[in-house]
Amino acid sequence: LAHVVVKIDKFSPEACCVVGNYYSLKGKHERAVLYFQRALKLNRKYLSAWTLMGHEYMELRNTAAAVQCYRMAVDISETDYRAWYGLGQTYEMLHLYHYACYYYKKAA
């Protein structure tokens, strides 16, 4: 899929996210982050890119960057349960369980 999308329009934010997902599945999280950043250079309000980049930062154990990404996503759309859930996971990882519960409830 990544090869097909890149052939169609390699400079679209959607193509960058597809390639980012490809690298994420391969376990190359830093490279995935680069592609999500490219997508956001093309469209700063691309919700999926913010959320997916948050997931990648969680894989890299960079909780501060993950929180920033998830917060950008919920600023764009307060109804995006994936970003709220990501915030819950991040705060759970930080052993801040009250915050984690709050964000999990927002996701539900």
Question: How does this model look, in words?
Answer:
With about 110 residues, the chain is mostly helical. Helix content is about 80%, strand content about 0%. The chain contains seven helices and no strands. Helix 4 (about 45-60) packs parallel to helix 6. The chain starts with a helix and ends with a helix.
Mean pLDDT: 93
Q: What is the percent of helical residues? A: over 70%
N-to-C series of helices and strands: HHHHHHH
Strand content: under 5%
Radius of gyration: 14 Å
**Total DSSP E strands:** 0
Gross morphology: globular
| Poorly predicted spans | none
**End-to-end gap:** 31 Å
Biggest beta-sheet profile: none
Structural class by secondary-structure content: mainly alpha
Helical run tally: 7
